[in-house]
Amino acid sequence: MTSNRQFILKRRPNGTPVADDFALETSALPVLEEGQFLIRNHYASLDPAQRGWMSDADSYMPPIPLGAPVRATTIGVVEESRAEGFTKGQWVMGLNAIEDYSVGTLGGFTQPIDPHAVPQVTNYLSLFGAVGMTAYFGFLDVCEPKPGDVVLVSGAAGAVGSLVGQIAKILGCTAIGIAGGAEKCARLTDRYGFDHAIDYRGKDVSALDAAIRAVAPDGVDVIFENVGGDILDAGLMNLKHGARIGLCGLISEYNAPEPVGARNLWQLIVHRASIRGLLVADYVARFAEGGAKMGEWAAAGKLIVDEHVDEGLDNALPAFLRLFEGSNQGKMILKIA
Q1: Most buried of 50, 102, 279, 282 (most Cβ within 10 A)?
Q2: Tens-place pLDDT, residues 160-205
Q3: For the chain, how many structural domains are there in total?
């Protein structure tokens, strides 16, 4: 190819993103400078965090500039290189964009990967990528689980949540998952081994509170929070003394014109509980450690990792929206090449 198709952010979404917020544009391939290499992207990771990057708001990363391609972690193959250590035909992974080609820079975020070291190369975007490392370090380091703990996971059928519940079981905990719909709840217990599944659909805070209390009458020791809103509020009403909450995401708030926020934080005082935010970027130096353990568990059949791959740059938006509709069955990935 001599041109580059790019999934461009044209305007800041107001609520749920729509087609007019984006454009699929074609530009000429760049001429490489010394220290740069050209990546032919094969797969791009689609994650709820990208919705936050589309807004002009303070965050742990700067907003995606208008007129720029949507930022994403990609895996691909080096097509051309003027950078020492990167050669044509080499597989790489890095923070790039949803586009056919990205330019990597020596000393940047893109690193070589070995496609033969994993069952399939997309596992670098799931089990061995940010998803797997978020579940591993977020749960173990932030939530500090102990055998016998009762663990509540929201967004439990998602890429991170499903792994957290499985790790909880490996460590001897009781795993309770909250998900949307009977099919996903059945998936939690039948496929991922959760002890209990709660369907949040059609339930307000009081009903969710009662549903949690029914399966955890003595309360929960750990909450791994991916959703926020009513679901977090219901979880807060079921804390044990000294409970730990790991705040991984607030997906219910990302498209909300006026976020609701948490209204039952006073329960942290009542139960002398703690809540702590987590970001996988803090653990990059330990990825080899986490990857080795996750790989060991997967090889032993203790972890099931599902990936949902949609194909084509022209399907970038509907594939991304699956994350908020709940129609994906596993880690959401866009196949580009």
Answers
A1: 102
A2: 999 999 999 999 999 999 999 999 999 999 999 999 999 999 999 9
A3: 2
